Amino acid sequence: MSNPKPMNIRKRQEKGKPLKYKKRHDAFKIHVIVQATEEKFTLDDVYNDMKISQLKDELEFATGIPLSIQRLSYLDEGELQDHHDVRSNDFVPGCIVQLKVWPMYQELIEAVVANEIDWVFKLGVTNPSDYHTPASDYMTKRARAAWLEERGFIALCLAAHRGHEEMVLKLINSGVNVNRKTPTGKTPLHLASATGYGEIVNTLLYNGADINAEDKNGYSALTVAERFGSKVCSRYLFQFQWQQRAKDIKPSKKVPMFAHQYHDSAMPVWMRGGRAQIYFSKILKPGEFEGTALNAPKGGHHPSVAHKKLRNATHFRDSPDSNASELDDYFPDESGVLPPINKKKKSQVKRPPTYDEWLAKQKEIERKVALENKKQNEEEMRKKMEEEEKKKEETEKLGYEKWLAQREQERLERSPRHSSPVKHAASSLGGADGYASSIGGALAVHHDGALRVYLRSLGKSKAGVAYEDWLNEKEMEINSLVRQMGVRAPPV
């Protein structure tokens, strides 16, 4: 019955998920006999990987005996070690395990199980007490008080587990701590919830037991009751939990009202005062259908004649936007009969739209927005096509020879180091024909070419001569060579 992964239980509790105990598929059943009382208990969720310490933890739920005084043996009188597992001790399905207790607690357990209250209190469960053992005679006063408190707690755990309500109540009144825990973190409330004694649970709760206390596996008393299927204990625990929550609830402060709540048209307050203003609140979102208004048909009984006179005298007759004679048509006369409706007279008050009218208006607005978006998209496409056509026409106007010359000029400008001076001069003059007919043309020299920028960045050589001066000399030699060929070069 032990949960192999207690950390997962805590994580599920933090996330607010309910704990559901699931039996392992490889679990088997064993029997445990308590030698002190000759009682037999059955555990049906034992598996081979279970440690002996986990088995003792489950035996607290099954027997009510705390883990600190348990001694287990199997096949022989040797005590099973807590760090060993069930497999290493050769447990088989249906085997019988012996549960012994320390000799100093054996008589106490027998008295509690037999429900002998007087006998139990003679065995030292309260402080002070005349009960003593050979070992207790050598204890200090503080150690003896702790020993008596432990005996009283063990008696309370067994009494709560066995359902002895009178003994439980007497032990609590004698000063036994109801919230003390076993080494595994269990309280008497856990043990009573596991066995299904609702009266014991109720007694412990109303005598100060902590309903939210958890053991080392993360189980609370309510979780234990649900695990072992005790609906009575669950109902008591739920009821007590809600009662505690109700005690902590404080009445809410008086919330101030809004203006329209103080001056509601259903109250006579709005008719008092010199201004006699009408307050109302629109609770609908902007754009929602408003099917009611001040001029909507009135439901129920017609207002009385006094009501009509008071309204006309205090508000409507003084208002420049309304006509009292027209408003009289909506109120009965002194006889209580409404005047006949004059179909020819048109009311100046605008009738609120019906739902169909409002819906049609909304659809019309959506249609206009969609139409405007469509026109805008078409206008953008038209402008884009016009720009493409314009670029295409400009490209077609350029002749092939002019286009080829421009491409060649761009290539020479990008890489001036790989172009020969003669070819460069010829291309700048318009080809071979231009070179032959324009002997007096100028030779284009690119002073800021890539090579010149690079040489300028190198600075000077070790001899102190600038690299850029060397390039200038080379350009002067090329210019002289061009002059000899009949082409006038521009100055460097």
From TrEMBL:
Record carries keyword Metal-binding: no
Matching PROSITE patterns: ANK_REP_REGION, ANK_REPEAT, UBIQUITIN_2
CDD domains for this protein: Ubl_ANKRD60 (cd17063)
Region spans: Disordered: 315-355, 369-430
Amino acid composition bias (Basic and acidic residues), ranges on this chain: 369-416
Boundaries of every Ubiquitin-like domain copy: 30-99
Start-end of each ANK repeat: 151-183, 184-216
UniProt keyword list: ANK repeat
Record protein name field: Ubiquitin-like domain-containing protein
Annotated organism of origin: Elysia chlorotica
